[in-house]
UniProtKB/TrEMBL annotation:
Protein name as it appears in the record: NADP-dependent oxidoreductase
Organism: Streptomyces glaucus
Coiled coil (UniProt feature): none
Residues annotated as domain Enoyl reductase (ER): 6-300
Domain of life: Bacteria
A Pfam short name: ADH_N
InterPro entries reported for this sequence: ADH-like_N (IPR013154), Chloroplast_QOR (IPR052733), ER (IPR020843), GroES-like_sf (IPR011032), NAD(P)-bd_dom_sf (IPR036291)
């Protein structure tokens, strides 16, 4: 919990009343909560121009847990159901770094049986981001897709989703992660000077679509490799529409979550988890996330 905007050092374990459960919502007993860079960016005030944030603030938008109670007019879930979801409310205050969190049913789906609690908690925001970006640019069978930051939390899922959709995937990452990318179904290329040439060695005709999960030079490089700029999706650069591409801000969507769950249960999608820490070490989880050197997801164990 945080009493004001601040860094990881401002996080504290504290008691807070159990969340109210409005009509259309359920109360979830949290088993695990995913950690995302947006958590600490929001806590530092980075999203203040965009979002209504209330204090004391309990961070966290990714959850996996068990339905403890259902609100009025809820038929989608029952007490005891195992669920996971991306809980982004209109006002940001009561998040998933807690024993209990309330969530509207449109933000939840049934937890994939094939995934652990920690894997399920690492899937919603990153998986929805990757899937919605891929869908926005029409990734389909036969495409060659360039995925930037392919070994990260979003990128590692983007690689698998694009591959499951029938695309050939080229993924950028540091050389230490190349074996990891091959396991996920991508052809790896190293970051750094000459990246465009290395991509063209694998795809002389260029690429059909590009998913930018890192920003910086990735946008310009991708546009140089694409025939159609509309097939570039970036989750980092809000100016990309002025260059012809598409900017993607992830949305809660129960149907998309259910699709990701079905992919996982069909063996087409796994969630690489880099580190699992107890809730009391949320500050350390943020420091690890901020370092930018993790491979896959960081997750907090709660229940």
């Amino acid at each position: 919990m945080m009493s004001q905007y601040g860094s990881a050092d401002a996080l504290r374990l504290a008691e807070h009343p159990e969340p109210k459960v409005a009509p259309g919502e359920v109360l979830v007993r949290v088993m695990a909560a995913g950690v995302n860079p947006v958590d600490w960016k929001l806590a530092e005030g980075g999203l203040d121009p965009l979002m209504e944030v209330r204090f004391p603030l309990i961070p966290g938008w990714d959850v996996a847990g068990v339905v403890e109670r259902v609100g009025f007019d809820v038929e989608e879930f029952a007490v005891g159901d195992e669920v996971f979801g991306y809980i982004r409310k209109d006002q940001v205050q009561l998040g998933a770094y807690a024993e209990f969190v309330s969530a509207h049913v449109r933000m939840l789906a049934r937890k994939p049986a094939s995934l652990s609690w920690e894997q399920a908690a690492g899937l919603p925001l990153a998986g929805l981001t990757a899937y919605q970006a891929a869908r926005r640019v029409g990734v389909t069978a036969g495409d060659t897709v360039l995925v930037h930051a392919a070994a990260g939390g979003v990128g590692s899922l983007g690689v698998q989703i694009a591959a499951a959709l029938g695309a050939r995937v080229i993924g950028t990452a540091s050389e230490r992660n190349h074996s990891f990318l091959r396991e996920l179904g991508a052809e790896p290329v190293a970051y750094g000077p000459g990246l465009a040439d290395r991509v063209r060695e694998l795809a002389p005709e260029g690429v059909d679509a590009a998913l930018d999960f890192v920003g910086g030079e990735a946008v310009g490089l991708s546009l140089a490799l694409l025939d159609d700029p509309r097939r570039l999706a970036s989750i980092v650069d809000p100016e990309v529409p002025s260059k012809g591409g598409r900017y993607v801000w992830v949305r809660p969507d129960s149907a998309d979550l259910a699709f990701l769950a079905s992919m996982a249960d069909e063996g087409k999608l796994t969630v690489p988890v880099d580190r699992v820490l107890p809730l009391a070490e949320a500050a350390q989880a943020w420091r690890l996330s901020r370092s930018g050197h993790t491979r896959g997801k960081i997750v907090l164990r709660v229940g």
